[in-house]
């Protein structure tokens, strides 16, 4: 299996977010606040499911915070630190 790179992780995160919040541009700044595009707590749950499927991981709901899902970078950091996604 090919090791995931930060770019492919970020691209997958953007795809998962865009599936629930189409207003997020494909070339969104990775530090941009996703809430500004319409990501809310209900949509975060759906993004969470998409991330679990995309990376074949289980995310503890206790780890789902506003800060975790604030931006693409915060999600990538969370996935790398808490779920070892970069090591897959």
Automatic annotation (TrEMBL):
Keywords: Phosphopantetheine, Phosphoprotein. Transmembrane segments: none annotated. The lineage of its organism: Bacteria, Bacillati, Actinomycetota, Actinomycetes, Mycobacteriales. InterPro entries: ACP-like_sf, PP-bd_ACP, Ppantetheine_attach_site. Residues 1-83 form the Carrier domain. This is Carrier domain-containing protein. PROSITE patterns: CARRIER (PS50075), PHOSPHOPANTETHEINE (PS00012).
């Amino acid at each position: 299996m090919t090791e995931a790179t930060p770019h492919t992780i970020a691209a997958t995160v953007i795809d998962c977010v865009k599936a629930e919040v189409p207003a997020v541009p494909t070339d969104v700044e990775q530090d941009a606040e996703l809430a500004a595009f319409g990501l809310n707590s209900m949509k975060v749950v759906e993004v969470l499911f998409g991330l679990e499927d995309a990376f074949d991981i289980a995310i503890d709901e206790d780890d789902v915070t506003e800060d975790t899902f604030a931006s693409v970078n915060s999600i990538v950091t969370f996935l790398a630190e808490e779920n070892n996604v970069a090591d897959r």
